[in-house]
Every structure is written in C-alpha cells, then in structure tokens.
Amino acid sequence: MTEIPEDHPRHDSLVTRHRIEDGVDRGITSRQGLVAQGRGEAYDYLLGEQTLPSADGAERVAAAHLLLAEHAVLSVNGNVAALVPDEIVELAEATGADLEVNLFNRTEERVERIADYLREHGADEVKGTKADARIPGLDHERAKVDSDGIHDADVVLVPLEDGDRAEALAEMGKTELVIDLNPLSRSPQTASVPIVDNVVRAVPNITAHASDLRDASREELEAIVEDFDREAALAAAEERIRTGAADGE
Ligand code: PTJ
C-alpha cells in the first residue's frame, strides 16, 4: 500500500479505503464492499468526517442497550471485518456480546475467512458458521443465522448493510442498533437506535461509553435508553448534511 503522510488532508479516509482494498485482496470483503465504501465516504464527507453530538449520544445509548441485554450479538460483514477487526472484538469483550458473521453475498468460504480473521484479532468464539436458523420474511442469504446467535438475541448491533434485514429483525421483536452513514437509508430509519457515523469512529466510541457505564446501575442504564429520541438523532444528521449545521451548535 502507498505510504500516506500523517498530515495528508484526507489521511483517515485514504487509510480506510486501503483497508477495504486489503479486505478484498484477503477474500474477506466482497467487491460490492468497495461500492458500499464509496457511498459511505460521500456521506461522511457531508457529515464533516466527525462524530456529531447526536451520534455520540446514540453511541452511549447503544452501549447502555448492550450492557442491559440478556443476549447481545454484534453482526459482522465483510466491510466491518476489514475496517474494525480489533475494535469489534474489543466491543464484544467490553459488553459480553457474541460476534456473528452474517453476509449479504454469503459464501461459506468467506464466512470461514472472516471468522478466522476475527480470531486472529483476539476473538474467542465467532458464530455464523452453523447457520441452522432463519430470519422469517427474508429470502436472501442474510436470513441464515445461528440458532444460539442472532436468532436467540434480544439486542443486535447491525453495522452497515441494506435495509430489509433490519426490518425483519424488528418484526422479530429485537432491539436493533444500526450504524450507517446515510440517515435516509432504510436500516437507520427502522432501527431502535440509529447511529449515523462511520463504523471506524462509532465502534471504538461505543466501547468507550460501555467502559464508562460499566458500574452504572440498571436503573441508570434504563434511564439512558428511555431518554433517547431516535427521530431527533436522525433529524440532526440530515440537518448536518443539508445545511452543514452540527447539532448542539
Ligand atoms: O460482506 P457482505 O456480503 O455482507 O456485504 C456488505 C455490503 C456492505 C457490501 C452490503 O451490505 C451492501 O451492499 O450494503 P449497501 O446496500 O451498499 O449499504 C451499505 C450502507 O452502509 C450504505 O448506506 C452506506 O452509506 C453505509 N456505509 C458504507 N461505509 C460505511 C457505512 N456506514 C458506516 N461506516 C462506514 N464505513
């Protein structure tokens, strides 16, 4: 990979792009993942390539949900594995959540490669290889889940995907925490907690909030969850994109 100087104005964005390219070369990211990354970059540019105060709030709420969950699962696709392998494992450790590989362009080979890659980055157990249960109402490969993983979960973190699984998980009564840079996309629109932020910033920030909330009581965590206004979070991100105004300013 070409060396990118630290002071390059687009340093972070270029490093992120290279990670996706590397993911494709390793066979963990699909070629469609390159297109998804391009879409994400465009929205991130419009959001100012920073975590908005509303997104930071949503990330704290996501941390509270993960800590309150009976059984939380972090869903991992080819882009997430390439972009935040260490960080998603750290989030699983900080919250006691399971990791499960779930792919849109599913091949068993890619599921295995992603699971191996996460284990290389410190994961103990990675679900998603059994695929012995189905999400009702979905007719594509994302419906394939583990019975003791996403199928059983009460809270699921769903970073960066198209919208119909988000709707189907909501139908199953699960709490969905969605990370997506496009506030108008179907997945954040249907999420219990829409997080409009780059997965590269969002995942470590959810972990930081989880560490901060580690000693909080159940009542405190429930109050954080109840105070959350999902419509306001979506509106703040859209406002930033349309007018350049950051919420709280
Ligand atoms: O690995 P697979 O087979 O499961 O495939 C994964 C992709 C991402 C290719 C697949 O889910 C897909 O095609 O997704 P879409 O329909 O392109 O949607 C991706 C969404 O994620 C878009 O709304 C993008 O704006 C958003 N996005 C892209 N990069 C990021 C992002 N959101 C947060 N952080 C990013 N880095």
From TrEMBL:
<keyword id="KW-0547">Nucleotide-binding</keyword>
<dbReference type="InterPro" id="IPR002855">
    <property type="entry name" value="PPS/PS"/>
</dbReference>
<keyword id="KW-0173">Coenzyme A biosynthesis</keyword>
<comment type="subunit">
    <text>Homodimer.</text>
</comment>
<feature type="binding site">
    <location>
        <position position="39"/>
    </location>
    <ligand>
        <name>ATP</name>
    </ligand>
</feature>
<feature type="binding site">
    <location>
        <begin position="186"/>
        <end position="187"/>
    </location>
    <ligand>
        <name>ATP</name>
    </ligand>
</feature>
<dbReference type="GO" id="GO:0015937">
    <property type="term" value="P:coenzyme A biosynthetic process"/>
</dbReference>
<dbReference type="GO" id="GO:0016881">
    <property type="term" value="F:acid-amino acid ligase activity"/>
</dbReference>
<feature type="binding site">
    <location>
        <begin position="180"/>
        <end position="182"/>
    </location>
    <ligand>
        <name>ATP</name>
    </ligand>
</feature>
<keyword id="KW-0067">ATP-binding</keyword>
<feature type="binding site">
    <location>
        <position position="17"/>
    </location>
    <ligand>
        <name>ATP</name>
    </ligand>
</feature>
<comment type="pathway">
    <text>Cofactor biosynthesis; coenzyme A biosynthesis.</text>
</comment>
<dbReference type="InterPro" id="IPR038138">
    <property type="entry name" value="PPS/PS_sf"/>
</dbReference>
<dbReference type="Pfam" id="PF02006">
    <property type="entry name" value="PPS_PS"/>
</dbReference>
<comment type="similarity">
    <text>Belongs to the archaeal phosphopantothenate synthetase family.</text>
</comment>
<protein>
    <recommendedName>
        <fullName>4-phosphopantoate--beta-alanine ligase</fullName>
        <ecNumber>6.3.2.36</ecNumber>
    </recommendedName>
</protein>
<feature type="binding site">
    <location>
        <begin position="198"/>
        <end position="199"/>
    </location>
    <ligand>
        <name>ATP</name>
    </ligand>
</feature>
<comment type="function">
    <text>Catalyzes the condensation of (R)-4-phosphopantoate and beta-alanine to 4'-phosphopantothenate in the CoA biosynthesis pathway.</text>
</comment>
<keyword id="KW-0436">Ligase</keyword>
<dbReference type="GO" id="GO:0005524">
    <property type="term" value="F:ATP binding"/>
</dbReference>
